[in-house]
Amino acid sequence: MRFPLLLTLQASWLTVCVATQHYPTTWGHYDLCKSHGYTDEGPTWYYMACQPEAADMTKYLKVFLDPPNITCGDPPETYCTLENPYMCNNECDAATEELAHPPELMFDFEGRNPTTFWQSSSWKKYPKPLAVNITLSWNKTIELTDDIVITFESGRPEQMVLEKSLDYGRSWQPYQFYATDCLDAFTMEPKTVRDITQHTLLDIICTEEYSRGYVWKNDKTVRFEIKDRFALFAGPKLHNMASLYGQLDTTKNLRDFFTITDLRIRLLRPATGATMVDENNLSRYFYAISDIKVHGRCKCNLHANSCIYDKEKLTCECEHNTTGPDCGRCKRNYQARAWSAGSYLPIPKGTANICVPNSVGPVNCECFSHSNRCSYIEVLNTVICVSCKHNTRGQHCQLCKLGYYRNASAELDDENVCIDCNCNPFGSDTDRCNGTGYCKCKEGATGAKCHECLPGYLWDNGCKCK
Ligand SMILES: *[C@@H]1O[C@H](CO)[C@@H](O)[C@H](O)[C@H]1NC(C)=O
Ligand SMILES: *[C@@H]1O[C@H](CO)[C@@H](O)[C@H](O)[C@H]1NC(C)=O
Ligand SMILES: *[C@@H]1O[C@H](CO)[C@@H](O)[C@H](O)[C@H]1NC(C)=O
Ligand SMILES: *[C@@H]1O[C@H](CO)[C@@H](O)[C@H](O)[C@H]1NC(C)=O
Ligand SMILES: *[C@@H]1O[C@H](CO)[C@@H](O)[C@H](O)[C@H]1NC(C)=O
Ligand SMILES: *[C@@H]1O[C@H](CO)[C@@H](O)[C@H](O)[C@H]1NC(C)=O
Ligand SMILES: *[C@@H]1O[C@H](CO)[C@@H](O)[C@H](O)[C@H]1NC(C)=O
Ligand SMILES: [Ca+2]
């Protein structure tokens, strides 16, 4: 006897669909955590997987340099342009605003002329390596959504490693190696992102794409190619994000690959523009970076569609009764079921996997003793009685099945609470009746059950005109 339950559910689905049709353009984008719907119990919430919009993440990071005093200008120094070693009248002076090159200038609004940039001291201690670590920390888990792009105003480094951390800087893994000669620098075969396939996506490569061919004006950027990697699943123009999301959902390693809490740019050897280092002009060699792009979204485990920056800290605005910086736990009193992340599946709207109130569960299976079985309906976050007996229906078996009416002299938990309408099949339009047991009669028929004829009619499998 599942029919009454199915009816109730179907009714709720229908109203839910109507309620969400106002947002057709947002379908499949996971930007709504819940929407309003109606069941025969009244208004209700309908829950969906959701995530914050992708944004420029450089606004929210802290930057640390190692060595800490590696920025040029303290004491003031002169340096040469790389194209022309005889032009050494450029000055870096930390105490003069126009001549200072502090780390913030890697993250300011670019597009100004001239560009603003951070610059290191020059390679005075050659042949001791000029090594600098630039560490970017969010103190929050971030999912990358676009290429990391580093723009150099010096030549691009001859050796560099991009590293990531997933545990707030406790451990680090390489993301990509960069060198003019990968074999020589890292004993790795040179590869490019085009060599990567779906099966080797997690492989860490060394690339010579962004170090070779020193051209001052044009080739200033070093990339970590997120979009090319996405494209292996989503197609060249990323038109099939559903396929990518499906993969991310089922493969934790893949999801983690694009997830970070910190990034570290390890600059190991500056551009020299030649095979030999000119020891007489070491102030030609330094690092200068004008811009770093990191595009991503807060990781909220598909339980939040916004992430706020308050008191220098990013936090997901958790829905679905989850909590924690990444919505990684169930709230107190909502732990009736183990926490789990929301799911991108089924495409396009996903599954919310909301946290369930402790009080909701078999204990609260309230069915007026017409059933002792309940079912938890995820999308509505409610418990519904299953297989209501005694001709009842509804979330708590509190209504009468169609074709039955409420016995006014019986309590809700009485076996006799619903009375068969018993409408005469020939005299009535339907087998339903109103709250006092009156059926809806066809023309000529009368009586509570439509089993009698009005004057002028004769009973003959219904009332017929004389
Ligand atoms: C940075 O500080 C260390 C230790 O105080 C010192 O040895 C080093 O020369 C300094 N480097 C620069 C570039 O000022
Ligand atoms: C940079 O980070 C690496 C590890 O990621 C560490 O071994 C090294 O000592 C750090 N400092 C410098 C100046 O390279
Ligand atoms: C990082 O965030 C946690 C809370 O999520 C906070 O307790 C801690 O102080 C933060 N650390 C830094 C360095 O801001
Ligand atoms: C650069 O090197 C050349 C020749 O090696 C030398 O004449 C010149 O003085 C050097 N420039 C500086 C600024 O040291
Ligand atoms: C927790 O879930 C209930 C539904 O069970 C909802 O009414 C309530 O608003 C939620 N609380 C929060 C803070 O999201
Ligand atoms: C209505 O309920 C009362 C109380 O249980 C019962 O005695 C009576 O028979 C019921 N009426 C019908 C028509 O079933
Ligand atoms: C049911 O219909 C009858 C006849 O039309 C009417 O007298 C009665 O008030 C109705 N009862 C309810 C609860 O609407
Ligand atoms: Ca800048």
TrEMBL record:
<keyword id="KW-0677">Repeat</keyword>
<feature type="signal peptide">
    <location>
        <begin position="1"/>
        <end position="19"/>
    </location>
</feature>
<dbReference type="InterPro" id="IPR002049">
    <property type="entry name" value="LE_dom"/>
</dbReference>
<feature type="domain" description="Laminin N-terminal">
    <location>
        <begin position="46"/>
        <end position="297"/>
    </location>
</feature>
<dbReference type="GO" id="GO:0009887">
    <property type="term" value="P:animal organ morphogenesis"/>
</dbReference>
<keyword id="KW-0732">Signal</keyword>
<keyword id="KW-0424">Laminin EGF-like domain</keyword>
<dbReference type="Pfam" id="PF00055">
    <property type="entry name" value="Laminin_N"/>
</dbReference>
<dbReference type="Pfam" id="PF00053">
    <property type="entry name" value="EGF_laminin"/>
</dbReference>
<keyword id="KW-1015">Disulfide bond</keyword>
<dbReference type="InterPro" id="IPR050440">
    <property type="entry name" value="Laminin/Netrin_ECM"/>
</dbReference>
<feature type="domain" description="Laminin EGF-like">
    <location>
        <begin position="421"/>
        <end position="466"/>
    </location>
</feature>
<dbReference type="GO" id="GO:0009888">
    <property type="term" value="P:tissue development"/>
</dbReference>
<dbReference type="Pfam" id="PF24973">
    <property type="entry name" value="EGF_LMN_ATRN"/>
</dbReference>
<feature type="disulfide bond">
    <location>
        <begin position="421"/>
        <end position="433"/>
    </location>
</feature>
<keyword id="KW-0325">Glycoprotein</keyword>
<feature type="disulfide bond">
    <location>
        <begin position="441"/>
        <end position="450"/>
    </location>
</feature>
<protein>
    <submittedName>
        <fullName>Netrin-G1 isoform X2</fullName>
    </submittedName>
</protein>
<dbReference type="GO" id="GO:0007409">
    <property type="term" value="P:axonogenesis"/>
</dbReference>
<dbReference type="InterPro" id="IPR056863">
    <property type="entry name" value="LMN_ATRN_NET-like_EGF"/>
</dbReference>
<dbReference type="InterPro" id="IPR008211">
    <property type="entry name" value="Laminin_N"/>
</dbReference>
